[in-house]
Design goal:
The complex is a heterodimer.
Chain A: E1 2-7, H1 14-28, E2 32-38, H2 59-69, E3 74-77, H3 78-83, H4 89-94, E4 106-109, H5 111-120, E5 123-126
Parallel strand pairs in A: 1-2, 1-5, 2-3, 3-4
Chain B: E1 6-10, H1 19-32, E2 37-41, H2 61-66, E3 76-79, H3 80-85, E4 97-100, H4 102-110, E5 114-117
Parallel strand pairs in B: 1-2, 1-5, 2-3, 3-4
The chains are: A alpha/beta, B alpha/beta.
């Protein structure tokens, strides 16, 4: 089945890690992940600049590794990301900001992509 | 029977965090693409429909909800038990709404093609 995952909880909520376990299970059971959409506080997943303590969950980098290993792009809502100070190279240039925190496999996108993914998915799971 | 629809579950109180606003923004994006939507307010989400909201320096949630009709969302659903247990006074501004009992809420959700939760 085609799945879309919508992640709205920040890195420190357990559901950000649960969502990853769910995504891994989808791969293992041969389902197709059509779209992973980070919305609201979920955009923090895409922050490449997090430095959690070594003995704590490495949620952001675990997500990054998962996406790279499985050749997936994780879509990050641009409006939600910008207002939280998460920018990619283009947006940092556009708004003249210093910090670039979003890079591949994360890509800024819009709600229109969520609409399309929802229309083409058998299941949409919100975290 | 009826056309396939998405249920948007609104579970968060209006100004407690970003979820209420985010949910409404997402709903409007779906509506702009003419996707049939049934918004369902449940749990603390029913507070989004409360009378007398006067937020300072932020968008008024109930005003945004009252504009749903413009996007052809002509019916909103309110989980009856959530509204009653919170002694909720619904805003006059919201359009057509239906109080749904618990079994009807279950049927509404089960009949949806997709469910998005905010």
């Amino acid at each position: 089945m085609n799945y879309t995952l919508v992640i709205q909880t920040s890195l420190h909520c357990p559901s950000a890690a649960t969502a990853l376990k769910f995504a891994q299970a989808l791969i293992e059971t041969k389902h197709n992940i059509l779209c992973i959409f980070c919305y609201g506080d979920g955009v923090h997943l895409a922050n490449g600049n997090t430095v959690p303590p070594q003995d704590e969950q490495q949620t952001a980098s675990n997500w990054r590794s998962f996406a790279v290993e499985n050749n997936l792009v994780i879509t990050v809502c641009i409006a939600a990301a910008l207002k939280r100070g998460l920018l990619d190279k283009d947006e940092a240039l556009r708004y003249n900001k210093q910090g670039i925190s979003i890079e591949h496999p994360f890509e800024l996108g819009g709600l229109g992509q969520l609409v399309e993914a929802t229309a083409n998915s058998d299941r949409v799971i919100s975290f | 029977m009826s056309a396939p629809y998405c249920v948007f579950l609104f579970r968060a109180a209006p100004y407690s965090g970003p979820s209420a606003q985010d949910g409404i923004d997402a709903l409007l994006a779906f509506a702009a693409f003419e996707q049939p939507i049934k918004p369902l307010f449940i749990g603390d989400g029913v507070f989004q429909l409360a009378q007398g909201q006067t937020p300072l320096d932020r968008k008024n949630i109930v005003k945004m909800i009252s504009a749903f009709e413009i996007y052809d969302i002509d019916q909103i659903y309110v989980h009856k038990e959530s509204a009653l247990s919170r002694n909720l006074r619904l805003s006059q501004a919201i359009g057509c709404h239906t109080l749904v009992s618990h079994p009807d809420t279950r049927r509404l959700i089960q009949g949806a093609r997709q469910v998005l939760s905010f």
